[in-house]
Design a protein that fits this description.
Elements lengths: L10 H12 L15 E9 L5 E3 L2 E2 L3 H9 L1 E4 L2 E5 L4 E6 L4 E11 L2 E8 L4 E3 L6 E5 L6 E8 L2 E5 L1 H9 L2 E3 L2 E6 L2 E7 L6
Parallel strand pairs: 1-6, 7-12
Antiparallel strand pairs: 1-2, 2-3, 4-5, 5-6, 7-8, 8-9, 10-11, 11-12, 13-14, 14-15
Helix pairs in contact: 1-2
C-alpha cells in the first residue's frame, strides 16, 4: 500500500472504531492488550478542568467524551487513544480526569471515600486507587490526585478537596485522609496552621 492511499486518523475514525468495540462487550475495553500501529497525533486536548477539545473547540457530546475516555492509555508521559486498529496521540494538560465529587461510605475496612469523575467513573480510594498530593515548589499549593485506572489519574477538584480537608485526621506526624483502611498523607502536622 502506498503512502498516498493511507487515510490519516481523525476523531471520527477513532470514535467509530471505539464505538464498534464498545458495542461488543460491557465494561472498559482491554486497551492494555491492544498493540495497533501508531497513526500520528490528533488535535484533541484535555484541559486541566476536564474539558475535552477537538481542533480547538469543546466536545459538547458527553457520550463521545465518555467513549474516548474508555480507550485512553498512558505510555511514559504521553497519552493515546487506542483501538484495535489504530493508536493516536493526544494532549493532556495535567491529568485526563477530574474527580468532581465524593461520598464517605462505610465498608468492612472502615470509612471509604467513593469518588466520581467528570466522565462517570466511580472508584473507592484505597490500595488500588491511592490518593496523592503534589505541592507546587514555588507556591506550596497542593494538587490532589486519585488513581482511576492503569496509570490514569484524576485531579480532585477544589470544592471536593476542601471537603476532604474538613474530614482529615492526624496520624503519625501527618495530617491526611483515611479510606478503606489506608492512610494517605496530605501535609506534615508541623506545617499545619495553628
Amino acid at each position: 500500500m502506498s503512502a498516498s492511499t493511507v487515510t490519516p486518523p481523525s476523531a471520527e475514525s477513532v470514535a467509530l472504531s471505539a464505538h464498534a468495540v464498545a458495542g461488543k462487550k460491557r465494561g472498559l475495553p482491554p486497551v492494555h492488550e491492544w498493540d495497533p500501529p501508531y497513526c500520528g497525533d490528533l488535535d484533541i486536548r484535555i484541559r486541566r478542568d476536564g474539558t475535552w477539545e477537538y481542533l480547538g473547540s469543546r466536545i459538547e457530546r458527553p457520550g463521545l467524551v465518555r467513549l474516548f475516555s474508555t480507550i485512553l492509555r498512558k505510555e511514559g508521559e504521553k497519552y493515546f487513544l487506542v483501538t484495535p486498529v489504530e493508536k493516536v496521540g493526544i494532549t493532556v494538560d495535567d491529568k485526563p480526569f477530574v474527580a468532581v465529587d465524593f461520598e464517605v461510605e462505610e465498608t468492612e475496612a472502615g470509612a471509604a471515600l467513593r469518588f466520581e469523575t467528570n466522565v462517570g467513573d466511580t472508584l473507592v480510594a484505597g490500595p488500588d486507587h491511592p490518593l496523592r498530593i503534589e505541592r507546587d515548589p514555588e507556591t506550596g499549593e497542593p494538587a490532589p490526585y486519585v488513581l482511576v485506572r492503569s496509570d490514569l489519574e484524576a485531579l480532585i477538584d477544589r470544592k471536593s478537596f476542601y471537603r476532604l480537608v474538613e474530614i482529615g485526621k492526624r496520624h503519625e506526624g501527618w495530617f491526611g485522609l483515611w479510606s478503606a483502611g489506608e492512610f494517605f498523607p496530605v501535609i506534615p502536622e508541623a506545617e499545619l496552621p495553628d
